[in-house]
């Protein structure tokens, strides 16, 4: 019988070989400022961009004032999304946005391991969060996958699953409709653009389970909401988004 590791157990495993593995797949320099050294991020960049966790809405991860810690944002109170939790490592803003674009469009696949490590840290530092039973990367459609050659969400999900000790199911969800890229669609059309895009081929894997959905960036949340709604219709008990970067509201 599969069991889900506890947060406490995973914290105890954080330093067991992870640094050596990451140094083997990434250059020995800071990914942000290129300062030489053995760390993926130099101390200055780590402190500047990942040193202090922002106060966020626990449902959608939009930033909130310190006084609203632990509360839902107004948008999630007014119209609750299908997903239950969103955890992110950082805001999608300079200079981190350039790293995301290099992974997504520049074939710098080694960055996925860095993103997974930072996202793992954010997950394990979240009080009271229970790890999912399965991780599911947001799927690409066949055409876009063929054009790009890889799914950046899956590239992040692989090392994330290993470091969390959670099973990864790369084909848990299928994208059955080729949709326009959400970034090319106006905000008010994004929900319509992604409607009906996903299917779950094996309901037995989903029913009654906590599913963690992995992606690189969350902007409007329409794609993640549609996938969560599809998972819930097929019996998922809980859906948590594990996303590297969250685009702040404008």
Automatic annotation (TrEMBL):
InterPro entries: ComF/GntX_DNA_util-trans, DZR_2, PRTase-like, PRTase_dom. Residues 153-245 form the Phosphoribosyltransferase domain. It comes from the Bacteria. Residues 22-77 form the Double zinc ribbon domain. SUPFAM superfamilies: PRTase-like (SSF53271). It holds the Pfam family DZR_2. Belongs to the ComF/GntX family. This is ComF family protein. The lineage of its organism: Bacteria, Pseudomonadati, Pseudomonadota, Betaproteobacteria, Burkholderiales.
């Amino acid at each position: 019988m599969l069991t889900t590791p506890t947060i406490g157990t995973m914290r105890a495993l954080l330093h067991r070989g992870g640094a050596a593995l990451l140094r083997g797949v990434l250059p020995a320099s800071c990914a942000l400022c290129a300062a030489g050294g053995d760390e993926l991020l130099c101390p200055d960049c780590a402190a500047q961009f990942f040193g202090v966790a922002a106060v966020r809405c626990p449902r959608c991860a939009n930033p909130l004032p310190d006084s609203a810690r632990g509360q839902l944002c107004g948008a999630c109170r007014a119209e609750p999304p299908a997903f239950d939790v969103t955890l992110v490592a950082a805001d999608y803003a300079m200079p981190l946005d350039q790293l995301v674009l290099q992974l997504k469009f520049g074939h710098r696949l080694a960055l996925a391991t860095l993103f997974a490590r930072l996202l793992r840290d954010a997950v394990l530092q979240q009080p009271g969060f229970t790890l999912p039973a399965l991780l599911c990367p947001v799927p690409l459609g066949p055409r876009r996958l063929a054009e790009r050659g890889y799914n950046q969400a899956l590239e992040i999900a692989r090392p994330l699953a290993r470091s969390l000790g959670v099973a990864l199911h790369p084909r848990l969800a299928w994208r059955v409709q080729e949709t326009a890229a959400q970034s090319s669609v106006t905000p008010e059309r994004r929900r319509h653009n992604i409607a009906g895009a996903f299917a779950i081929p094996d309901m037995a894997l989903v029913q009654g389970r906590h599913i963690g959905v992995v992606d690189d960036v969350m902007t409007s949340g329409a794609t993640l909401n549609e996938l969560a709604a599809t998972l819930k219709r097929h019996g998922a008990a809980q859906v948590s988004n594990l996303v590297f970067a969250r685009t702040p509201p404008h």
